[in-house]
Structure formats: C-alpha cells, structure tokens
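Why show two proteins at once? Because comparison is the fastest way to build intuition. When a single record is shown, students tend to memorize it. When two are placed side by side, the eye starts asking what differs. So, the first record is below.
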Amino acid sequence: MSQEMRSCMAEYPKQMRQKRSNCLMTSPPVSRFGRESLDDVETVASQAFELVQSGRTEPPPRDSLARKLATYVDLTHRDLLDLEEWTANGRRYTAQTPLLHQSDVPESAILVLDGFACRYKFLTNGRRQITAYLLPGDLFEPDLDFRLPLDCAIGTLTACQLAFIPRADYESVIRRRPRIARALQMVRLTESATLREWITNLGSRSGPERLAHFLCEMLLRLRTAGLAPGNQYSFPITQADLADTLGMSCVHVNRVLQKLRRDGLIELSGRRLTILKPEGLRVLAEYDASYLELAAVPLRPSAIDELIA
C-alpha cells in the first residue's frame, strides 16, 4: 500500500465524523418519528455501543451463523459445537473502526456476532464506496490456498461484536467438517451474486429504486439471521453510510428517505425501520430475491455425499 493511501486510511474516522456533520448541516428537515430520527444523531451506532456498555440491551444472538449455514446443508451436532467455539471469544469494537486495510494480508477469519460491518474501497481523495455489508452471522474468510493481499478494506459501520478466528483454527474446521465447508462454498456463491446485483443497482436504478432494493435485501438477510421479526429490523446506520453504499450524496439520500416515507412504504423510528408496504417496496425496486436463494446442484461428489451414502 502506498504512503498516500495509508495516510488516507489513517484519516478515515476523522473524515467520517466531518462527513456526518456535513450531512446534518446540509440536509433539509425530515418529519420526525418517535423521539429521534436518522438525521438527529452524529452516529446512531455510537449510541448503540453506549447502550451495550451500560447493560441496557439484550445479548446478541450467537446462532446467526449456524442459522445461515443451515439454509444450505443439514448441520450435525458436532458441526454446531465447532461453530459455537468460533463465537466464544467475541470482542467489542466501536463504530467506524478500520479492521483491515487494503493490501493487508489477513491471518484470521472475522465473524460478525452483532452489529454491521462492511467491505469498502477508498480513493486517494478520501471518497469511499461500500461494496458489501457484513451482518450478524456473516464471515470474512481468508483464502486458504494463497496468502493474498486484500483488494478492499474492512471496517465497522456500527458498534460491533466480532470474533477473530486464526487461520489455522479456521482451516482445521473446514478440513474436518465437510458440511460446514459445503455451506461456506454456497455462501461465497451467494456473495458473488449479491455483488453483481449491487453493480446493477448502482448502474441502472434511480435513487428511490436503489434504496428500496437495499432495504428489501436487508430485510431478507436479517430475517435469515433471525433478526427481522415481521417486516421490521434494526437500522443503526447513518445517512453518510447510506450515501457511500448507494452512490448518492447525503442530501439525495435524505430526499429519497422522505419520498419513501411520504409514499407510506417505510417508517423509520429511532433505530428501527418498518416496511409498511413490502409488496409496494418490492415492486418499486423490481426486487427478485433469487440471488439470495441459490438452488445450486453439486456436479461432483464431495465428502458429504460419501458420509451420507
């Protein structure tokens, strides 16, 4: 990594604080829901972290990864025990914390237990594009065959609880547990399909359509993790983060949020988002969830097939 890029990454938290401040100063007023709205906080994630520290929130569910992998394969009791070990040493990280820089060589897998993290790319002028969200139950995996420098950076969006799994321990489970290995292979295919969907979203949809598509995806992904009862879920991210996700300015994001509210599609109360008209949001986004529900059929037998035979 060049010295110029490292300097840019070192300035990341400061830039994000300034960006959020600029959003608050330039955004037009938004109608209020409940006691606070997305515009009235410097970062909702910081408040969430304070709630956790004060003991006023429920402990994060630790079975999100198992729930996710179980949508692809039938996990055994021993599989579940190994997955549980991965969650045992979670640590708290504050919002907007860089975890890995572009060109770093990762030596651990990172499992998100609670909160929202992301992959992102930085330009030398400090502009950022978020390329993927890491939600509870999501894994960042190091390559097991090569020591590859990262082509992106990884950091927290909100206060997070993360488990770092050393490469050797991670590889051991992959080698010993073929069902987990098969499920993670399916996860990687889903992540590739999601990236293609995001590219389409950025390149071919209008602002309201982009945000509607993003909110539909978050609903399904959080529901898989057991974190979206009904049609509502925690939405602890700022308009600056949404702007970097959707390729829009903070002002544009603000206006799009207002439009979706006026149209009766969503309600944002504090840190909780409710989709009032799921079908209307789906139609607006032309949302097709098939990229999250892969129906892949293995072409070659694996260790799993030998165990079942």
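Second record. Ask yourself what differs from the first in the token line.
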Amino acid sequence: MMIANSSIRLVVLFLSCWMPSVIFGENPSTVIPVRSTLKKFMPKLHQEKLREAKIGKIDFVMIGDSITHAWSKYPSLFKGVNLLNLGFPGDRTQNVLWRIENGALDGISPKLVTLMIGTNNMHDSKQAYPADKPEDIFRGIKAILTEVRTRLPKSKILVFSVFPRKAGPENERAKEVNAMLPEISDGKYISHHDLNAYFLNENGQQNKDLYNRDLLHLNDRGYLAWGRALYPLLKKHGLSVNPSVVGKND
C-alpha cells in the first residue's frame, strides 16, 4: 500500500509540473525579466537613471536600446522638456522588463512614453544571443506595454516600428515584428507609429546615408531625420523638439 501511495504521489507531482506547460505553453525568454550582462553599463547606468528620475518632474520617457540611448549626444534637441532617456545599449525585451521591475518607472508620471525595442532580439546566432522568433519578440513588446500601463496609467504610449536594418534575415525579422505592431493600439493610451519611411530611399530601401557603417545605428543625419519625425508627435502631446540642432540641416 505504501508503494502504491508513493507511486500515486509521483504521478500527481509529474502531472502538476507537466500539464501547465502542455495546456498553456511555456513562456518564451522574451517575456521573462533578465538583468543585462553588459558590465560597461550595468549596474552603473541603471542606477544613474534611477537617480535622474528623482530630479524634477519627468515629462517624457524614451524606452529602448542603444539606438534610443544615443539621443544623449543631442541634449539640446528637446528644449524645455524634462526627458528621461531609458535607452540602454544591448537591451532586449527581457532586459527592459527587468529594468521596469527594478524601479525604472517608479515615482514618475510623464505625459508621454515612447518605446522602440526588439532589434537586439533579432541578431543572427553568431552574436551573443540566438535570434528570437518574431512572434516571441512581439510577445515581449506586449509584456513591456502591460508593465508600463500598470505603472504609468495616465501616460500616453507611442510604440515605434523597429527601424530598417541592413538587408538580410535580421531585417526580415524586423519586418515581421513590425507587421504585428498595429495590433497593440488601443485607441486611447497606446498607439503604433511607423516612422520607417524617414529611413528609406526613393526605392524603398534602407537609406545608408543615415546610418553608421554597421547599418544598424544611426549617424547624425539619421537622428536629424528621427527628430523631424518626432516633431509633430511630441507637439501633439504638448512637448517641443528642435530637430535643427542635430548635425547640419540639409
């Protein structure tokens, strides 16, 4: 009898561990918060941003990766706006979730939040991490939006399409994710904006003049183009931007 009871307990334990994954499916890594492993920026930059958030009233938050982080080179672009730049080099969706769980949005109530994330989830397997499936990257973006809405219920959120990359499988993944993004708009707090036309040439291909040699990160002219695209969006929310301060105007 004891052997039979032990066998029953083992079966119950096995089913309790196995059945949820069968019924609901396992969560992809893109939705599981993970601390960034880039020692150059962690934990120093994260801690700096936590302190920065406590200085004055934050009007505007930008969430993203190194492409967003590089706005720090152009501080005079957002004149009269108290911007909290939460762009962190190397960040993937799971790293953004970790930052939010660890205080990145605590104690603030900005008018506007922008989000562009996912390009680091798309790198080929020769990079530090294998590429995630587009649908899993999309799930990661939705998980971030859920966290932002929970912590900043009064803020409007603009989600940008992942910017064009050099032709190849990584750019194809970006296109697949971008095709899903319109689904996240709720008509009230969250909206999707595709700014990619600003980064394409007349043939609909990536405008290499706006990028660094890696054809991933923007150069001065690329940030000028992004600044021009941001102008009407920020103005709509009572924020100002001066794109002429980014490099030389054409």
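One difference worth noting in the second protein: Residues 2-24 form the longest helix (23 residues).
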